[in-house]
Amino acid sequence: MAKILLVEDDTFLLDVMRNILGEEGFEVVPAANGKQALDLFVAFKPDLIVSDIMMPEMDGFELLEAVRAIPDGVTVPFLFLSARTERTDVTRARGLGVDDYLFKPFDAPELVSAVQARLDRRRVVERFDTRSAHLQTVIMLANVIETRDPYTAGHVERVRKLALNLAFALDWKQEEIAVLEFGSILHDIGKIIVPRQVLKKTGPLSAEEWKLMRQHPEAGARMLEGVDHLRAAIPYVLYHHEWWDGGGYPSSLKGEQIPPEGRLLAIVDAFDAMTSNRPYHKSMTPAAAMEEIHRSRGVYFDPHMADIFLHTYRTDLDVEGPVG
Ligand SMILES: [Fe+2]
Description:
Strand order of the largest sheet: 2-1-3-4-5
Bound molecules: fe (ii) ion
Number of domains: 2
Low-confidence stretches: 319-324
CATH topology of the largest domain: Hypothetical protein af1432
Mean pLDDT: 88
Order of helices and strands: EHEHEHEHEHHHHHHHHHH
């Protein structure tokens, strides 16, 4: 339940607003002036403040300024109740960081919708901030892995973009795309178990080294298992080396047994590997890599996803494609 600090020196108006918001299920903490409100703000940590401007003791402007000076109060939504004629007040309040106005006289639905809109907006912003903080951490982590492998510089970022484009073209849902972003960034996180000299090696890998390399999907999945907000990305990490014909690893899954996350990432991961320089090969042109993807549809790759990828890539980047 959202807590609202309601500040108004007119006791009649305070009671009316208190009832309206109380009936909507909000927990309302009333205050008769700014000074009282400031004490209550510290004690109750409200989710939103609705305040009159002209009040004895401490007016609305002073309250707003004082609230914004407290760390907890920097982002709390603040709504002013104001008479329509107070034109200069608007400018002053904006400068102090007010979020919205309610002009007197207002009716019950106006008050409720203004409060609700600010609370909703606040929730969206918080969710976005948390998500982008997670994303930054994850990118940092993936970059640490990349810097151990000089041949994959920029790989994570390119795979992420290619994966996003393909998911959009396949009409994946927004929640799925949100997970895909983490999954595509973290897909090779398990390479942390592979020694640097193996990652750097320019010649062919020994049987022992390949064995180690092939463990990176499972190693990565184990790492993510313990992280609540990243667990959903495990299918990308675990299944991106499975092949459509069952010849991949670690589980030799076949066709639609392979989760779609793995099938999608396999295509974009392979495409980027082919078009960038690696220890074991020089980079191909995008057109040659597209030809290769086309040839491998139904062998390594989900044929439908491969077709959509080729179509989208050609359209987006305006590359002359070899396949029609
Ligand atoms: Fe990989």
